[in-house]
């Protein structure tokens, strides 16, 4: 995985993973990698449970924003701990804050549980206020956090419609080519 310091502007990939595509700052949270140090005060159980819920919703809310593969926790390796196997960080959560949007990899749950990672307070507050990623209520604070502008984060439905249109176009092209 790639390391970003907490609250750095995120420029990880194209589309919604590039801060330049947002009207508000897009801030990295929990992109941890040894040997870069991080705060180890742990999180309240309510934060951990909410993070687990958000991470659990990401594969169905935003399946088109996944990256391939998993990673081994470099902090477990560095500490000679038995690793939990690949920490699946291909899913990411977009959390609206006050005039900012945070992006955290799903591995944040492992970092909190196994390494007592404590994200910045402003992120913790945003997590506790964040509606379910699959809900209609999620769109409003995400838009507000992005300066009341449509975020570059497509809904699952919009993405599926675009791909259905693309598949239909290719089918028409193949059909016209085959019928020549």
Structure explained in plain terms:
- With 180 residues, this protein is mainly alpha-helical.
- The chain has helices at residues 45-61, 74-78, 108-115, 121-129, 139-145, 156-178; strands spanning 26-28, 92-96, 101-105.
Describe what is shown at a glance:
The protein is mostly helical and 180 residues long.
Class by helix and strand content? mainly alpha
Q: What's the helical proportion of residues?
A: 25-40%
Q: Note the run of SSEs as H and E.
A: EHHEEHHHH
Major sheet attributes: 3 strands, mixed
Mean pLDDT score: 86
Treating each run of at least 4 consecutive H or I residues as one helix, how many helices?
A: 6
Strand order of the largest sheet: 1-3-2
Shape, per Cα inertia axes: globular
Low-confidence runs? none
Question: In whole angstroms, how far apart are the ends?
Answer: 49 Å
Find the count of extended strands (DSSP E, 2+ residues). 3
Nearest-angstrom radius of gyration?
18 Å
Share of β-strand residues: 5-15%
| Number of separate domains | 1
Architecture blueprint of SSEs:
Elements: E1 26-28, H1 45-61, H2 74-78, E2 92-96, E3 101-105, H3 108-115, H4 121-129, H5 139-145, H6 156-178
Parallel strand pairs: 1-3
Antiparallel strand pairs: 2-3
Task: Note the main attributes of this structure.
180 residues; mainly alpha; 3-stranded mixed beta sheet; globular
């Amino acid at each position: 995985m790639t390391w970003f310091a907490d609250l750095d502007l995120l420029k990880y990939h194209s589309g919604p993973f590039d801060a330049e595509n947002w009207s508000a700052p897009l801030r990295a949270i929990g992109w941890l990698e040894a040997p870069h140090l991080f705060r180890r005060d742990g999180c309240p159980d309510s934060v951990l449970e909410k993070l687990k819920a958000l991470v659990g919703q990401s594969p169905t809310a935003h399946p088109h924003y996944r990256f391939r593969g998993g990673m081994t926790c470099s902090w477990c390796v560095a500490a000679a701990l038995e690793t939990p196997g690949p920490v699946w960080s291909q899913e990411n959560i977009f959390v609206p804050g006050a005039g900012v949007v945070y992006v955290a990899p799903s591995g944040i749950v492992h970092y909190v549980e196994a390494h007592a990672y404590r994200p910045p307070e402003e992120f913790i507050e945003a997590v506790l206020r964040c509606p379910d990623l699959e809900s209609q209520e999620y769109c409003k604070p995400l838009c507000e956090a992005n300066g009341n502008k449509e975020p570059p984060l497509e809904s699952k439905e919009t993405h599926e419609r675009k791909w259905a249109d693309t598949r239909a176009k290719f089918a028409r092209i193949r059909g016209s080519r085959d019928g020549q």
